[in-house]
Structure formats: structure tokens, C-alpha cells
Specification:
heterodimer; A: alpha+beta; Chemotaxis protein chec; 8-stranded antiparallel beta sheet; 8 strands; B: alpha+beta; 60s Ribosomal Protein L30, Chain: A; 5-stranded mixed beta sheet
Chain lengths: ~200, ~160
């Protein structure tokens, strides 16, 4: 399998559009869950050596990370990151009540998992449908720890087989509720070539 | 009054060897392992941040600093070049956690890194004078070359000096 080292402008634009579709669907599903308007950023997309990823995130603060493994035609991980306060606000919005402790109880955790499931599910399903490829998702895992350490473990897990990754970072906010989050996608260069093939098929190149 | 010591960030698959005074910092270790090296007489210290056990097992061997075995060799080589004496070098290790896992095989990533680091240091007869490894949480490391103290910080499991 060929390893792709650089992206053309066309490929970058096409991948950004694919990322836009994904985050667009994911945030629409979030918007339905909370009945609020959700804003999204333009995707930041890079094909970079795996070991350069941590520097792009660079956040020592404890965050809620909801992690799902990508399977099938694209291998890698999807990571949903929420600051602690954002996660608390989001839970309050969904449950209508608040756990006033510093931690996340079982109910909070299952709400976060469900948010992770729905957002990542819609993200990945919309990509799969749009591209005509089959990307699967593992059940979500929740973790509350330093963002950098979560990324560090993902990098360790991928580094055995992977040199370069396609890294897509999209951010969303619910302005009225002070909720900010990120969806990060890490996928390897073999998966990237499958995605690019699919883009070529769609665009008739 | 304490002088403000320069803090040098050591990234993933990175190695820094410098003269005292300086504090070498690596932020957010998950399954990776940080290894500190110090020659108290020559007043040199180093910090390596590895992510895989052995260069042999990897397809791509471009960056020796990614692997426990080759990074440790490289660190010692740099220390010796700077006038350190091998039997004075002391090491400390931290990291190698398992924060989450999807498969059986994932469980061992941190533990295998720690095992590989211990194995290589043992083979090179470099004493490990302190360690803080394993668990299911991330760590940030600050290694003070002047005192040799390694400060291990975590989000919810407290901070400790080793």
C-alpha cells in the first residue's frame, strides 16, 4: 500500500469538506439533544508525523475525553474533548439537574458516553455514506485526565504501525451555554489513501 | 533567593542533555516513559521520552529516540561526550500508564515500555534510583538537574517527588 506523504490543495480542500460534513452532522445531532444552536469552526486538517500531534493539542488541563476506535476502511481514533466546565454544563442541559460535586458520577458518565456515541456516530456515518466506504466505531470509553496524556496514549497505540497521520481538528461551541468542545480524528496514511480514492471516485477524477 | 531555572520542554520521541541548572519538563505522559539521567559530579542531566519498547520491532527505524533501547544508548553516548562518567550516571523513570484500552493487546503498551526501559538500563548497568510507573492516569514530569529531584504531577492522583 502506498504511503501518502503530502496532500495537494485539491485533496486538502476535499478532505476539509469531508470534515465539515462530519462535524456538521455531529453538531446537528448535539443541537437536537440540547435544543440549542451549535456553532462549528472550519476543520483544521494536517498530514503530519504522528509524533508531531501532541504539540498541536498542548493542553495539560484535565479534560473529559471520549475515545472511540475507528475500524473497517479507516483505522485510527476519534476523540471528543470537553473541558470540565463544558462537560458539566452539557450534562446539566441534558439532564436538567446538576451534580454539584467536582467529579462525574455514573449518571454523568453515561450521559457523556451517550453524547460521544451520538456525535461520533453521526460524524462517522455521514463520512461513510458520503464517501461510500465502511468505517466502523468501537463503543466509547470515557476518561477524565490531562488532554496531553490522553493524546500521548493514542500516539503510543498508533505508533507501532503508523508514521504519518491525517489529523482533523474541529471545534464546536454552544455560545449561550459556554460549552466548547473538539472532535479530533486520527487516521493512518493507508486509510487516508482509501479516503482519497473515494474522493476521486466521487469527483470523477 | 532561588534563581529562576530555565525550563526546557522535552517532547515525545525527544532527548535533551544539558548542564546544570535547568529543569527538564515533559508534559502529559500516558503510556510513554520518561527516563532521567544524571551525573551529580559533572552536573549534567538528561531526559528522554520514549514511546515504543524496541527498534527491532518497528518497521520504521528512522528515529532512534522513539524507542527505549536506542534512546537510552543515545542518552548515555551524549552524556559521555559531555564528560560524564558512566558509573556515576543515575536514572529515574516515570510513566507507562494504561489510561484506556480497546483490546487485550492495548493493555500492555505502557507496561511493555516500562519493562523495556528497565531491561535496557539493567543491561547497561545504569542504576534506577527511583521510579513511578503504571497506573491508569497521565503524568507530567519536571526533572531538576541541580537536585536530581523528579517531580511527578498528575491531574487527580497528587504530586510527588521521587
Amino acid at each position: 500500500m502506498t504511503e501518502i506523504k503530502t496532500l495537494t490543495e485539491f485533496q486538502k480542500d476535499a478532505l476539509k469538506e469531508v470534515g465539515n460534513i462530519g462535524i456538521g452532522h455531529a453538531t446537528t445531532s448535539l443541537s437536537h439533544m440540547v435544543n440549542k444552536r451549535v456553532w462549528i469552526s472550519l476543520p483544521d486538517l494536517k498530514l503530519i508525523p504522528l509524533i508531531k500531534v501532541p504539540a498541536l493539542v498542548n493542553n495539560e488541563a484535565p479534560v473529559i475525553g471520549i475515545i472511540l476506535e475507528l475500524t473497517g476502511d479507516a483505522k485510527g481514533f476519534l476523540l471528543l474533548l470537553l473541558s470540565k466546565t463544558s462537560a458539566k454544563y452539557l450534562i446539566k442541559l441534558i439532564l436538567g439537574t446538576e451534580n454539584e460535586t467536582e467529579t462525574f458520577d455514573d449518571m454523568d458518565q453515561s450521559v457523556l458516553k451517550e453524547v460521544g456515541n451520538i456525535m461520533s456516530g453521526t460524524y462517522i456515518t455521514s463520512l461513510s455514506n458520503f464517501l461510500g466506504i465502511a468505517i466502523g466505531l468501537s463503543p466509547p470509553l470515557n476518561i477524565f485526565d490531562m488532554a496531553d496524556a490522553i493524546i500521548n496514549q493514542i500516539v503510543c497505540m498508533m505508533s507501532r504501525d503508523v508514521e504519518d497521520v491525517l489529523f482533523i481538528n474541529t471545534e464546536f461551541t454552544i455560545n449561550t451555554e459556554k460549552i466548547e468542545g473538539k472532535i479530533l480524528i486520527f487516521t493512518d496514511s493507508v486509510s487516508l489513501s482509501k479516503i482519497l480514492d473515494a474522493i476521486n471516485r466521487i469527483s470523477g477524477n | 533567593m532561588d534563581l529562576v531555572k530555565e525550563k526546557i520542554i522535552v517532547g515525545i520521541a525527544d532527548l535533551v542533555v544539558v548542564h546544570n541548572p535547568a529543569v527538564l519538563v515533559t508534559i502529559g505522559l500516558g503510556s510513554c516513559v520518561a527516563i532521567s539521567f544524571r551525573d551529580p559530579v559533572a552536573k549534567f542531566g538528561g531526559l528522554a521520552h520514549i514511546l515504543l519498547p524496541a527498534i527491532e520491532e518497528s518497521r520504521n527505524k528512522d528515529n532512534p529516540l522513539k524507542f527505549a533501547d536506542t534512546a537510552i544508548e543515545k542518552a548515555v553516548e551524549m552524556m559521555l561526550q559531555k564528560g560524564c562518567v558512566k558509573n556515576r550516571i543515575e536514572t529515574k523513570i516515570a510513566g507507562g500508564a494504561n489510561m484506556f484500552s480497546f483490546k487485550e493487546a492495548d493493555l500492555q503498551i505502557g507496561a511493555r515500555n516500562v519493562e523495556a526501559v528497565r531491561g535496557k538500563l539493567g543491561e547497561m548497568k545504569l542504576p534506577i534510583i527511583a521510579s513511578d510507573t503504571g497506573g491508569n492516569y497521565g503524568r507530567t514530569i519536571e526533572f531538576d538537574i541541580a537536585s536530581g529531584v523528579m517531580l511527578v504531577k498528575s491531574a487527580f492522583n497528587g504530586n510527588k517527588e521521587i
